Amino acid sequence: MKKLKKKPKEVNRKIIRIQTGLRYYKPSKFDIGFIVRRSYDRIVSIDKSLFQPAKAIKKTKRVYTYQWRPSKVAAFAAAVLVLALSLQGLAYLASVKDASGEILGAATSAYTDLSGAQASLSDQNFESALQLFSSAQNNLEIAQDKLAQYKALTLVNSQAKGADNILSGAYLLSQAGSKLTESLQLFDMVTVSDQGIETQDFNKKLRQNRLLLKESLALLNESSEHFDKVSNLPADYISTLDEAKRQVQELSGVLEGLINLEDLYLTFFDGSPKTYLLIFQNYDEARATGGFIGTYGVVKINQGLIEKLDIQSIYDFDGSFYEDVAAPGPFQPEIKKWGLRDANWFVDFRQSSAKLLEFFEKGKETADGVVAFTPKIFEGLLEIVGPIHMDQYGVILTASNFQEVVQYKTSVDYDLEQNQPKKFLADFALILLNRLNNLKKEQWFSFFQILQTNLLEKHLLLFSKQSDTQTQIESLGFGGQVLPTDGDYLLVVNSNQGGTKTDLEIVQKLTLKSQILTDGTVINNLRIKRENAANEPNRDYLRVLVPKGSELISATGLDSDPHLASVFRGLKTDPDLAAWDIGELKFDRVFVREEAGKTEFAGWVNTDSKEISQVELTYSLPFKVNPKLLDRTAVYSMLFQKQLGSRGWPFDHTLVFEGLKTIWSTTNVAPQGQQANFSYQSDKDGYWAILLSQDN
After folding, report:
1. If DSSP codes are grouped into helix, strand and coil, which group holds residue 260?
2. Whole-structure pTM over 0.70, yes or no?
3. Do 136 and 192 belong together in one domain?
4. Among 326-340, 421-435, 638-652, which stretch is predicted with the lowest mean pLDDT?
5. Cβ distance 301 to 371 under 8 Å?
């Protein structure tokens, strides 16, 4: 295999600045709720003239981290601003001139109230926000009652009809704001300690909160219907209404996410006694679902309270586990016997979880499900609660040193006589839970955002043996399942087999070029570049999952390590591993099999310290992209899934389609001529599609 010498480069960290001074804010599509991590320019002074665009007079730069800012609620104020502006159109009608002035005055007051409510929400002043939302509703009722006196006018005058719909939509928005504000007051009631959630009747309060969120969502959807009916606005105000409609749609998505998460909690912790297997995955030693399992835990929860939290070394369990099962082939012959520490072998978390529970229940006790996480979630939580002093161990844990310190304290620097290397994590967990009890209201939103981010980036994974709960987990995308698709697909999975903690210093880049031939055949050329900046070698078992039925054409850059079966003399053969072993060796170095409903190309990539490895795979897809005879169009799509619990890698994808032209594409691609380019930092799953037709 060709090795390229290269001095490791220092990672450049970029700060993205977002202009929000004039209330223009475009969050990531994955931002849920009102928490974003960002830098921004803040407008200190603006021209507040009602009928002229605001102008910036002075700017100062400030940086905030994990600040709660309800930008989506700006839709309330934006919608009523449109109302105030559009109602000017009624003034030219002599018969309603006085009425239009009264309507405009009430709408302007409502706009002021809603702007104040937004500011109160930003400051978590829920009582003030509720009062202002109520005042806005009163003013909007006045405007609606006045306009109702001229109902006939709304039937013949488009501006009057538009004003009627905007008034109705704005009124519904203010009601939605009131419901949302009520629901946010739940954070005033949350009490957490090392005993769990101590808030009395928490599940009952959460169900009531869920009802408020659903009522708010219904009001938002109804208001959106009114805004959609607005037409013939003055040109200057159309973009303002469009922005209000967009923000209403985003807020609806936020509420749907909150409702789903509360449903998930109420199902996962339904009030009955539950036992969950906790899996701590070290992503510095990559494995299929996140990382090597050096630590496991058992948590028993009843009515939100922790009845038991036990954290132990995985070797304590495996040392007492007497099921003699041969380990997966890539572990052989160094590791002959399969144990709980290596049971997260399968790329689909559902299958790995089933195997983890199978081993756990044979060696200890039954469990209702699995919760797996990498250190990233603790790094995020430490950013909220601040440094944790572990005086008995002589260390201070922070977000920046957590991974390094925990790895050292649980693997090297521990009391050999007590021989409890994972006690450090157990003690840390109790301190962390108690520190959560001291969170301020605004910090709870940061806590929620951290959980949401880790779920979306698959650093926090859930599995339940209860079918309805598992269905809900998967529908939210938190189950780590390999997704089905009718189009192209790619998932690259790395598993560290050398025992070195080097994966956090591996820089990997994926480049894919897809070409549609004249007969519709699609040829993919995938290049995988791995740069090892660590001081130790990295031995990787690489798996590339592609659409089922894809045919390998060529492969270069893989090492010649043997592909062994999952068997060993005197040990049982696991039936799931026996099925996984079925396949064939191609080009002496690539093992082709099926896994999780996909075709898999597997091989070895060994990258020495300060070196670069490059792998290139060329394969054809099992389907053609041919414009159909009747509609003369064809669709190409790509679903890219990130490896569970891994960092995001750059992924560049180019599609070449000579003889075809673009009819439509998703907004995240850039068609140019007869090719399209998709660039993505794969910290989450990604998808893009393009509709093509004959170029004549």
Report:
1. helix
2. yes
3. yes
4. 421-435
5. no
Q: Which residue has the higher pLDDT, 514 or 270?
A: 514
Q: Identify whether the C-beta of residue 574 lies closer than 8 Å to the C-beta of residue 338.
A: yes
Specify whether 449 is located in the same domain as 586: no
Residue with tokens 């609806």, as numbered in its chain: 252
Same domain, 113 and 158: yes
33-37, 241-245, 607-611, 646-650: which is most confident:
607-611
Do 464 and 607 fall within a single domain?
no
| The predicted structure's pLDDT at residue 615 | 98
Question: Is 390 part of any domain?
Answer: yes
If pLDDT is split at 50, 70 and 90, which confidence band does 297 have? very high
pLDDT value of residue 248: 77
Q: What is the DSSP letter of 570?
A: T
Straight-line distance from the first to the last Cα atom of the chain, in angstroms, rounded to the nearest whole number? 46
For residue 318, being part of any structural domain is answered with yes
Say whether both 78 and 200 belong to one domain. Answer: yes
Q: What is the pLDDT of residues 600-632, one digit of tens each?
A: 999 999 999 999 999 999 999 999 999 876 678
Closest alpha carbon to 135 in 117, 149, 153: 117
What DSSP line would sit under 18-29, residue for residue? EE-TTS-----T
Reading the block at residue 413, the tokens are 């620097």
Burial class (CB in 10 A: 0-12, 13-18, 19+), 418: exposed
Report which of 374, 519, 399 is spatially closest to residue 453, judged by C-alpha positions. Answer: 374
Token output for 616 = 């290139």
Band of pLDDT at residue 257, cut at 50, 70 and 90: confident
d(CA 547, CA 554): 17
Asked if residue 396 and residue 526 are part of one domain, the reply reads no
The shares of helix, strand and coil residues in the chain, as percent rounded to the nearest 5, are: 40, 30, 30
Total number of domains constituting the chain:
4
What's the domain range around 252? 69-266
By the 10 Å C-beta count (0-12 exposed, 13-18 middle, 19+ buried), 615 is classed as buried
For position 536, which CATH number holds? 2.60.40
φ, ψ for residue 596, nearest 5 deg: 55, 35
C-alpha distances in Å from residue 66, one per residue of 297, 445, 448: 30, 9, 11
Structure tokens at 685: 């799953």
Last-in-domain residue among 216, 231, 266: 266
CA distances from 614 to 1, 3, 296, 503, 536 (A): 8, 8, 35, 16, 18
Residue 528 near residue 513 (C-beta atoms within 8 A):
no
Secondary structure of 30-62 in HEC code, one letter for each residue: CCCCCEEEEEEEEEEEECCCCCCCCCEEEEEEE
Same domain flag for 457 and 568 = no
Structural domain includes residue 522: yes
Question: What pLDDT was estimated at residue 241?
Answer: 74
Q: Cα angle vertex 449, ends 354, 19, to 5°?
A: 140
Tens of pLDDT, residues 178-213: 888 888 777 777 777 777 787 788 888 888 888 998
Residue 357: CATH number of its domain: 3.40.630
End position of a domain, from candidates 475, 502, 521: 475
At residue 157, the pLDDT reads: 59
User: Same domain for 285 and 367?
Assistant: yes
**Residue 368 falls within a domain, yes or no?**
yes
